[in-house]
Amino acid sequence: MKDSIIILCGGGPAPGMNTVVMSVAKVFLRGGYRVIGLHGGYSGLFSKSPRTEDIDFFKADAYFNRGGSYLQMSRFKPTDKDFEENFNLPLFQDNNIKLLVTVGGDDTASTANRIAKFLEAKKYPIANIHVPKTIDNDLPLPDNTPTFGFNSAKDEGAHIARTIYEDARTSGNWLIISAMGRSAGHLALGIGEATHCPMTIIPEMFNKVEISLDAIVNLALSAIIKRNILGIPYGTVVVAEGVFHDLDPQEIKNAGVTMTYDEHGHPELGKISKAVLFNDILGKEFAKLGLKVKTRPVEIGYDVRCQDPIAYDLTYCTELAMGVYELFRKGETGCMVFIDCNGESHPLYLHDLQNAEGKIPPRRVAIDGGTAKNYFANICNYITPADYEAAKKYVPDPEKYDFRKILGW
Hints:
Layout: E1 4-9, H1 17-30, E2 34-38, E3 52-54, H2 57-63, H3 80-85, H4 89-94, E4 97-104, H5 106-122, E5 127-132, H6 150-171, E6 174-179, H7 186-194, E7 199-201, H8 213-229, E8 235-240, H9 242-245, H10 249-254, H11 274-289, E9 295-300, H12 311-329, E10 335-339, E11 345-349, H13 350-353, H14 370-378, H15 388-391, H16 403-407
Parallel strand pairs: 1-2, 1-4, 4-5, 5-10, 6-8, 6-9, 7-8
Antiparallel strand pairs: 2-3, 10-11
Helix pairs in contact: 1-2, 1-12, 6-7
């Protein structure tokens, strides 16, 4: 029987999923392996009747440059009981599977780490290599290397935000944009910087003070008031959904919003429009202050996850796939594949990346790094002490909207 590999995709989609899966297939088919695709993410590994299919060259060639994911994805997270009682070892034995390739973000990587430990403890002769994906860009890769999918999502997000900014300029309004990013603000900041947005609000900004709805609202008002002083009665505000994730749930409840939580304990942010929520809260604040500002909410999220990957990700995902093959040939396992700036592949061992709970912690925006520091210093508009006198035309207490005082910077 031919040696085989099996591939699964966990979490949510990102541009380049098919590029990774089908490129892995092409490379291993070339090496003489049988390639099996597993539908349903990790649920297939703990099911007696997993849905699998062989991936041949023609299937791989037809899908490698498409958006979405040919292999159906899942957020299934196995329990300790699943590992002890439901792991489908016959799937591997009956198909002579030598390598498990997992593709996904932080939750998928954390489960890949558990699987690596499980396979080692059981002494099963199965290698496992993880491929890091997420439009959130929040996996801890060296040298600020992006996760695949991020640049394609940022490109489309910036395209949408550019159109929105032009609408704001044309109509003399403010557009409130919410961008995906559960744990980190990379996507929101990338969109904000690319479109010269006058205010981007990300969770990492609150490194000196506790995050609160008042602070988020006042940051937006700081930009709006500053632009009014400058004679610019329009603009956009980009808010990372992670700021709502980090809020005290009671604060959100007090704002009239009831949140539900997924099986991992994460607020189900996808079930509510953060842009609508924030726009409504801002509207109430405008009314209290007597400010005549028109705002409209726009959500950027699910519309950027399944688009076709841009050339950057087509190339990068192909390199990741070739990296999986090279690492496997060298006998590596229990690792995440990393491609350096020269296109060379390296293993990042999952046990070295884990925290005390065995999970892979997210990489957050380096708020003191050059990208964030320069954006907030040179592109953003906000109130400073020099604006206090002029700002009194719009608000009685301008100091309350001083950008640096809000954040304790």
